[in-house]
Input
Amino acid sequence: MVRLSMCASGKYSSRGPALIPRMKTKHRIYYITLFSVVLLGLIATGMFQFWPHSIESTADWGLDRRSVHDAPLIRLPVANPIPERGDLSCRMHTCFDVYRCGYNPKNRIKVYIYPLQRFVDEVGVPISSTGLSREYNDLLSAISDSEFYTDDVTRACLFVPSIDVLNQNSLRIRETAQALAMLPRWDKGMNHLLFNMLPGGPPDYNTALDVPRDRALLAGGGFSTWTYRQGYDVSIPVYSPLSADVELPERQPGPRRYFILSSQTAIHREYRAELERLKEENGEALLLLDKCSNLSQGVASARKRCYKGQVFDYPQILQARWFWDAYFSSMKAIGMTTLQIINDRIYPYAARTYEQWNNPPLVKWSSVNSPLFLPLIPPRSPGFTAVVLTYDRIESLFRVITEISKVPSLAKLLVVWNNQNKSPPEDSLWPKIAAPLKVVRTKENKLSNRFFPYDEIETEAVLAIDDDIIMLTSDELQFGYEVWREFPDRLVGYPGRLHLWDHEMGKWKYESEWTNEVSMVLTGAAFYHKYFNYLYTYKMPGDIKNWVDAHMNCEDIAMNFLVANITGKAPIKVTPRKKFKCPECTAIDGLSLDQTHMVERSECINKFASVFGTMPLKVVEHRADPVLYKDDFPEKLKSFPNIGSL
Output
C-alpha cells in the first residue's frame, strides 16, 4: 500500500493539479479509496506508537504496572545445565559483542529487561528466600524509565535479568545459576549484566558473586584485585535504605579538614589494620571512624560515628554532596551510573570526559571559577591580563610593556612592583598604551607575588611575564593566547624544560638542554587560568611557597607541579622558541645566570616531589605551532607570520 501511494504521489507531482479534473470517475474512486486506507493505516500506527505505556508489551517492567504474584511460575529441573563459574580473563573485546549495539545517532546503548518470572525448584521451593527486593525493583524501574531502555529484544545491546542477585545471602546458588542459564538470550552470559552488592557476609566477605555466570558482566560491590576484571566489570557502592532520607549540607568554601575519611563499620580486620597504620603515619589528615559505644539512650546509632569518644553526625561528616547525589544516593543513581560507564566503553568517542565525571557543573570559590569545573570551551572574551613582575629594570620593563601592548587580545596590563626600597616611575614616564595599565606595590620582595590573585585581574586568562622578556613577538603572544583558549586548564608557554631521573644519583634532575620531550614550561612567559593563582597562594602543599620565597628560585617549577597535580595533564609548549635571551641582562641582575641556578633547580624538583608525595609532572613529545607556520605560503596570508626563531 505504501509503495503504491508513493507511485501515485509521484504521478501527481509530475503532472500537477490540473490532472485531477480530467480523471475518470472510477480512477478518482480508486485513488480516494487508496488514500483513505493509507491515511487510516498511518493514524493507527501513530496511535499504537504513542499510546501510554500501560498497553505496551508485557516486557515493560515495573511493580506499579505488574504484580510479582502475577508473574508466571517456572520450575527448574534438577538436571538443568549450570553456567560456568565465570571467566576471569573476560574483557570487552573478548566476552562482549559490541556489534549487537550497532551505530545510533545518540551513541546510547539499548537495554532490555527480561519479563518477571518466579523460579522454583522441582518441589516448589523458590530460588531466593526474599524474592524481588524493593531495591532491585527500584533499579529495574529506573532503567525502564530511562533513555537506555527498550522493550524490543531485537534492538537490545545489553540484557538485564529480572532475577534479583543483589544479596547473595538470600540466594540458592545452584538454582539461581540454572535460572540464568534458562534465559532465552543467555548465550553463555554474553551481553548480560548482573547487579550484586552483597557477595557474602561475615566472616568470609566474598569479593564477588559466587553464582556461576559464564561471561556476564558484573556490577558488584566489594571487588578485590583478584576478582575485578579491569575494563569489564563495574565496581559499584553498596546501597543502604537508611540513606534514602539523608540530606547532606552544602560544602563550605575553603580547604577540607580531612584528606582521607573512613566511616565504614565492620571492616575486615586486615583492612582495618591497614587504615590504622595510615592513621599513625598521617595523623590528623586521616579520620578513622567506627561504631559508637558511648551514645546516650535513644540516640540512633546508624546516624552516628565515633573516633576516640568524639561523636560525629553521619553521613553529614562526609561533606561530599555532589558526588553523593550523582552516584550514591539511590538505586537509580547507581544504576544509571553503571549503564553510563558501560556506554562509554562501547562508544568511547562519545564518552564523558574526566571533568564531566568528577566535577560539579559549576563550582564557585571566592570570586573565581575553576576551569576544571567548567566545560573546556574557549572563552570569547575579554582577552587576557598581562602580569609583569619587576624590581628595578625600568628600561627593559618599558620595552616589555610596549611590545605586549601590540597584542590584539590584551585586556589589561598589571605591573607588580616588587621593590620596597624604590618607588615606581611617575605616571608621566610610563609608555602610553591603549589597554589599561595598573601598578601594584608589594609589601615584601617575594617571587610568589607574581602568582597572587589580585583583584585587578578580571579576565580568566593570565599572561605571567618577566620584565626582561623583550624577544617575544606580538604574533607569538597572540598565538599562545589562542592555544590557551582551547586548553584553559593547561599551562601554555614558550621555552620547555624537562625533569629526568638520575639513576647514578638516585634523584630527579632538571634539564634545559635540547630534547624531544617537555614536562614544564617557564612562567617567565606563560598563559594560565587565574584560578591557579588562588591555588598557588592558598592551597600550595607543605612549605613549598615559603621555600620558593626564601630561595628566590623555582616559582615556575612550583606552578608546573601544582597545575599538573590538579589536572593530571602536561603543559603545552607553543612555537619553536627554546631560550629567553636578554641582551641588557648581566650576571648581576639576572637570576638565571647564577652559576648555582641549575643545581638549585634540580634541588627544587626533588623538594617538591617529596612534599607532593609523588611526581605529578607529565612528559609529552609535541608542541603547538600555527597551521601554516612551515608552509611555503605567502606571509601576508598567514594568521601568525611573525613567529620568532629559537
In short: The mean pLDDT is 81.
